[in-house]
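Much of what follows relies on a compact textual record of a protein's fold. A record is reproduced here so that you can trace the correspondence yourselves:

. . .
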Amino acid sequence: MRIFRLLCILCLFIGATLSCSGKTPVLEKKPFVIMTASGNQVPLGIEIARTAEEQEKGYMFRKHIPDGSGMLFVYDSDRQMHFWMKNTPSALSIAFIDSTGVIREIRDMVPLSEATVSSERSVRYALEVPKGWYERAGVQVGDRLVLDPLR
């Protein structure tokens, strides 16, 4: 019984240490492709934020997000979306994407800002990437994120 108590205390200590360490777990990453209007395929490794908890956390506390990676916020229905950069030290760009995968808007966001960045229309998805990645990759409004990996 004493060993069991010691193991429980050890597990609590390790759990508390990990939760206070500032390390953010990486969500499952899947390979996606953005099809440009010119027919180019732009690959992107995307973490998927489906739950309210994952969406609330987003890229908070992450100091570096590499080019070629992003986080896709997935919702069950179309809605006007509102994002901010509280506790997010990395500069990001965000694309608001409709239910068919078409990119409707691309906006830049300021690190650590509590100003809201909202979509102008109802959309189904939002894709955050390192600031300027869309331009560097040749991705524009009207291009399409292939949604097959979500199925």
The beta strands are 29-35, 41-49, 69-79, 82-83, 92-97, 103-109, 117-118, 123-130, 144-145. The CA atoms of residues 96 and 126 lie 5 Å apart. The chain has three helices and nine strands. Residues 1-23 have pLDDT under 50 and may be disordered.
